[in-house]
Amino acid sequence: MVVATLSVALLVENLVPAATAGALALLVGKLDAAGVPNVYQAALAPLTLFGAVLAAGHLATAATGPLTFLAASRIDGRHRARVSEVATSGENYAALERPEVQALIKEAMADRSRGYDCTPSDAAIGQLRWLCGLVGAAAACGVLLGYAWWLIPLVLVPAALNRMVRTRQDFGLSQLWQGATKGELHADVWRRAAVSPGEGKDVRVFGFADWMVERMQQHIREANAPLWSYITRMLFASWKQFLLVSVGLIPAYVIVSLDAARGHSTVAVATAVLAAGWSLFQVLGPNSDMYQIVGGIRVLKAFAELREAIAEPDAETASEGEPVKADDLGSPPSVVFDKVSFSYPGTDRMVLDGLDLEIKPGELLAIVGLNGAGKSTLIKMLSGLYSPTGGEIRVDGVPLGRHSLKHWRTRLSVVFQDFVRYHLSASDNVALGQAGVPRDPALIEAAARDAGFDEVLSRLPQGWDTPLARSRSGGVDLSGGQWQQVVLARALYAVKQGARLLVLDEPTAHLDVRTEFDVFQRLARHRGDTSVVLISHRLSTVRQADRIVLLDHGRIAEAGTHDELIALGGVYAEMFAVQAERFRRGHDDRLEETAV
Ligand SMILES: Nc1ncnc2c1ncn2[C@@H]1O[C@H](COP(=O)(O)OP(=O)(O)OP(=O)(O)O)[C@@H](O)[C@H]1O
C-alpha cells in the first residue's frame, strides 16, 4: 500500500513539469487572445488549472518524503531481518568464521552508521523514481510533439547523453565508495574503541588516545582519498553537462522564439515548447537515482553471495544422509569420538589427531591439558559446530552428521569459555539456555540457586528484571565471577528443561575457591543422571570427576580417576603437584603450565 501510494505521488511529481508547460501555454494563449476588459474573466479558468497543477505538484512532493521514509524502513527492515536469518540459520558455523563471509555480512547489512550509504530500498525506490521520470519525459515529449517532431531528437538526444554521462560517473562513484567503506570499517574499529567504556580503561591507563585518533584519521584519509579526488574531478567536469544542455536547448529555444516573433506560431505554443524542453532536462537531468540503484544492487549482490557462502556445504561441515531424530530425549546420550582428526578450515595444523574418547551416559568426565591442546575444539565438535576432517563422532551409535543438529542441541547444554554476556535482564540471560521451550520461572530460580547466583540476585535493584549492563537504564555491571554464575545458571536451566549432557569449558576460572567448591557440590548434587564434561585448569576441581582424561597434541595421553593418575606419576601427577604446592604457598590462580 505504501509503495503503491508512493508510486502515484512520484508519477504526479514527474508529470507536473509537462502539465505545467501545458497549463502555462493555455494561460498565455487565453491572455493573448482576450482583449483588455476581458483579461480577468479569460484568465480565471486557465489560472485555476495552473494553480491546480502546481498544488498537485506541491502535494506530491510533500507526500514523497514521508512515503519514501516509510517504504524504505519497511524494505530495509525486512532485508536486514533476512540477512540475520541467513547468518544464524544453517549448520555451516565454520563459514561464519571466514573473514570474507564476515565482510559479506557487513556489506549485506548496509548499516549507514558503518559508512554504507546505499541500501536495497534505495535501489527499489530509485528504480521507481527512474520509471516515473521516464513517464514524465514521455509527457514532455508529447508537448514538444504538438509543435514539431524534430524538436524531440534535438532536445532529447543531448538530455539522454547528459544522463548517460551522469550514470557513468555514478558507477565510478559507487565503486570508489565501496572501496572507501572497506577502509572506513578499519577506522570504525578505532571510532568505537574511542567511546566504549571497555577500551576506555586501556586508552586512559596506557595513554594512547592521541595515537588512536591519529590512526583513525589516517584510515579515513587513506580510505577516502580516491573518492575525494574523483568528486573534485566531477565538479571540474560539470561544464560538460552545461554544454550538453546548451547544445539541445539553445537552438530549440532560438528557433521557437524566432517563429513566435515572426508570427508563425503563437506565444502560447512557444511558452509550452520552452517549458517542456526545460522540463525534459529536469526529468533526465542530474539526480542521484542511478547512484542509489547501483549501490543498492551491490548490497543485494552481497546478500546473494552470503547465502551461497553460508549454504555452501564445505568439506568440514557436510552432513551425510538423512537427518535422524534421536527418539529418546529422556536419557543421557552415549558419545564416542572414534579416531577423530580435525584441523581448522584454512590451516594445516592437526588440532585433534586420531582422538579416541568415550563419554559414558551419566558420568562426570573431566578433560585437562595444556593451553592449545584442543579441549575447546573438542567441545565445538561435540556441539556440531565443526565436523571431523577424519574419523567419526557417534551419538547413541549414530554418526553425529546424521542426527538433526537442532534436536541434538536440545539434549546438550554448553558453557563456552568465551560465553556471551547478553545486555538483557537477568532472567533473559538464564532463560536463553533453552530458548525453544516455554519459560519456566520456577526452573530459572532453581538453576540460579544451583549455580550460586541467588545471593548476587538478591542484591540486584530490580531482581530478575535488572538489565545486566550498566549501559542500559537501571542496569548493573557484574564481575567476571558473577557472570560465570549467570552462565552456569543458563546451562543448568537447560538441564532442568531436558538437556542430558552438560559441558562446562572452564566454568569456574573467575570464581574464588570457596564459591567454586560450593558450585561443584551443588552441581554434583543436582545433576541427577545428566552426563557432565568438565574442562578445567584447576585440578582441585577436576579431582572430583568420575574419570579424568589428559589431552596432549590432539590425543588422549592419560586417562583414569584422580588417584589412578596420581599413582601413574605422569604429566597429570606433575601438574597436580605443582598446583598443590602453589596452593600451599597461598596462590589460587591457574597453573603456570609453561613451568611444567
Ligand atoms: N577458529 C579457529 N581457527 C583457527 N585455529 C583455531 C581456532 N580456534 C582455535 N584454534 C587453534 O586450535 C588450537 C586448539 O585450540 P583450543 O582452543 O581448542 O585449545 P584449548 O585446549 O581449549 O586451550 P586453552 O586451554 O587455552 O583454552 C590452538 O592452536 C588454537 O590456536
UniProtKB/TrEMBL annotation:
<keyword id="KW-0812">Transmembrane</keyword>
<dbReference type="InterPro" id="IPR003439">
    <property type="entry name" value="ABC_transporter-like_ATP-bd"/>
</dbReference>
<feature type="transmembrane region" description="Helical">
    <location>
        <begin position="130"/>
        <end position="152"/>
    </location>
</feature>
<keyword id="KW-0067">ATP-binding</keyword>
<keyword id="KW-1133">Transmembrane helix</keyword>
<keyword id="KW-0472">Membrane</keyword>
<dbReference type="GO" id="GO:0005524">
    <property type="term" value="F:ATP binding"/>
</dbReference>
<dbReference type="GO" id="GO:0034040">
    <property type="term" value="F:ATPase-coupled lipid transmembrane transporter activity"/>
</dbReference>
<keyword id="KW-0547">Nucleotide-binding</keyword>
<dbReference type="Pfam" id="PF00005">
    <property type="entry name" value="ABC_tran"/>
</dbReference>
<feature type="domain" description="ABC transporter">
    <location>
        <begin position="335"/>
        <end position="578"/>
    </location>
</feature>
<feature type="transmembrane region" description="Helical">
    <location>
        <begin position="267"/>
        <end position="285"/>
    </location>
</feature>
<dbReference type="GO" id="GO:0005886">
    <property type="term" value="C:plasma membrane"/>
</dbReference>
<feature type="transmembrane region" description="Helical">
    <location>
        <begin position="49"/>
        <end position="72"/>
    </location>
</feature>
<feature type="transmembrane region" description="Helical">
    <location>
        <begin position="236"/>
        <end position="255"/>
    </location>
</feature>
<dbReference type="InterPro" id="IPR003593">
    <property type="entry name" value="AAA+_ATPase"/>
</dbReference>
<dbReference type="InterPro" id="IPR036640">
    <property type="entry name" value="ABC1_TM_sf"/>
</dbReference>
<dbReference type="InterPro" id="IPR039421">
    <property type="entry name" value="Type_1_exporter"/>
</dbReference>
<dbReference type="InterPro" id="IPR027417">
    <property type="entry name" value="P-loop_NTPase"/>
</dbReference>
<protein>
    <submittedName>
        <fullName>ATP-binding cassette domain-containing protein</fullName>
    </submittedName>
</protein>
<dbReference type="GO" id="GO:0016887">
    <property type="term" value="F:ATP hydrolysis activity"/>
</dbReference>
